[in-house]
Amino acid sequence: MVNYIGTATPRVDGRAKVTGEAKYAGEFNISGLAYGSVIESTIPKGRIARIDTSEALRVEGVLDVLTHENRPRMAGADDAWKDDVAPEEGSPFRPLYDDKIRFSGQPIALVLAEEWEIARYAASLVRIECEKQPFVTDLYNQRDQAFVVKKPDKPRGNVKRAYAAADVRHEAEYFIPTENHNPMELFASTVTWDGGGKLTVYDKTQGVQNVQRYLCNVFKKKADDLRVISPFVGGAFGSGLRPQYQVVLAVLGALALKRSVRLVLTRQQMYGLGYRPATIERLALGAKADGTLDAITHEAIAVTSQFEDFSRNDTGWSALLYRSANANYLHRLARLDVPTSSDMRAPGAATGVYALESAMDELAVALNLDPVELRLRCYSDRDQNEDVPYTSKQLRECYRQGADAFGWDKRKPEPRSMRDGSELVGWGMATGVWEALQMPVAARIVLTANGHAEVSCAASDIGTGTYTIMAQVAADTLGLPLENITVKLGDSTLPQAPVEGGSWMAASASHAVATTAKEIRKELLALAKAMKNSPLAGAKLEDVVLADGKVVSKHDEGRAVSIADAMRHAAVDRIEKQKTNSFPDDASHARNTHSAVFVEVKVDEQLGVIRVTRVVSAIAAGRILNTQTAHSQVMGSVVGGIGMALHEETLYDHRFGRIMNANIAEYHVPVNADVQDIKVIFVDEPDEVINPLGIKGLGEIGIVGVAAAIANAVYHATGKRVRDLPITLDKLQR
Ligand code: MOS
Q1: Region at 622 (left for phi over 0; alpha for psi -120 to 50; beta for the rest)
Q2: Share above pLDDT 90 across residues of the chain, in percent, rounded to a whole number
Q3: Mutate to test the pocket of ligand 1, among 84, 210, 241 (most ligand atoms within 8 A of CB)
């Protein structure tokens, strides 16, 4: 029985969020809290020579100033600092560990005081002397030193020969600057000193069990002595996948003071965490005169730190997506004196597919072909990398329905050929692609005789709607009304879940719930069958469903036992089950989501101001669990894409190795006035191979392709091709 899956179900946590009842990491009120304030390095590389805390310590209300010289003990081995999401290669950053300065904005001292204002004031009185060392923060200065990432790239054919023989060629370099996540919620941790060496840590994170294991390793704590809780997350966009330094400092503070501690980073300090790495992308496409691709080369050089090698699949998308006998791709990293780069909003794809889809647009121009038509001529029903079919791929429908809804057939191909009064009008499009991953997740269900079920799991809801979709799946698989389901998430003591990322949580958590619900059904059927003259006598598990509060025969609705009756007869007042999902682990199919994005921009010819007036995003992502939250999620991703195309850029002053716009006044993100008409279409994509419910996940597909579609629309409007993001008005005047 399906009453909720696939419907527009409002968020079950909506009320808690708008009333402020939903608590975030920095909002848990604990008596006797002390407050921390971080002091960061102002140089990007060097050594701390001397720290004088005497004046700060004289301020009334200051409790301690922690530095690498006096902090409590932390683990020495790299392995202890490797969280679930840490890059394989390298040595993770350790705050207040030693005298080395590795990047500007590195935490080098923590002031602890009775009040936050006191801590912050006292921080200004700490005197720190540093020895500077030569540094580099400019990717373009290091590109020649970039090294190839160890990845099993699978080049095919002979690209060099095919490219030389191509009828039409396009080659260009594209650039994506460093971008910072800037979630609304600041990074914060509240650590409660529970006594007896036990700690409870309220943390802003996308993975409570990841943080729990990490802190236990770093502080050599027993698993039972440290609990991490994070019921709500005020946005993260990937910045909360790895444990961030404030949680280590907050625990250090609590251990030093033997007291509860709260630490909230400032917006500026958050620019010392991870970021989307600046990336130089080189594309070379060779096509036959008929518009079919024959040679694809995609090379990228991305930023990482001096101490860890962070990389994501950036160039592989180009070899996967389109039919081409010859393809070659390569990812390189350049080391800079900055923090380690990190996952941000479709990491790798948002950048790599931006470059690919910009280059495809340029190739379409060179071929004198409609951009949609070019993509259809290169369409592939098989993963071109692995040469396997997709579990499902309705990208063709995305092109068709997206183009229809947009009115693409009215497009005049010539640049600068469409106008609206004083404004130039441009129409552009791009393809999006992301992975449909699924991970092991366990769910516990406790069903009580009053027909209420509590579903619990350590997963986070990072604002994407996990509480709601888990409640929907539980309601349908347990045959109960949605109001009777309570979902508990974000507590490390709950059943196992990985970090919430990679768009894998919807499919994974849904199947954990469905798998556990099946165990409940099994038990209820046994209880129902044990009743005297049971109407379900002889029924097998696969013959019955749970619906309307009853165990019901699929074949005869009249044969049913209410859940309450079955439990009462057996004198059982609760049934508790916990199971882990499982997915067929085979490489026989590719698992991906796809999109087609159509964009209209209007450009003021005199001023160069670009407005994104219309976006149509047609998405193929399997079965949509909740059309309302899914719609919001894709809309949000499109806004992220507008930011990437037109606004977002972390600016360094390379003379000082420091970020110049570490605030949200000067780091621009789209605001209401920048967001106009966004239409989201979910293309029907039945998928019986990927998993039993046919779910793929939506977190990231919505941003992929958006920046390219906007850049392509700007070219169509103005005849000007800007290949370095963001497309600001000055670049249109170059
Ligand atoms: Mo996402 S960038 O995997 O949180």
Answers
A1: left
A2: 97
A3: 241
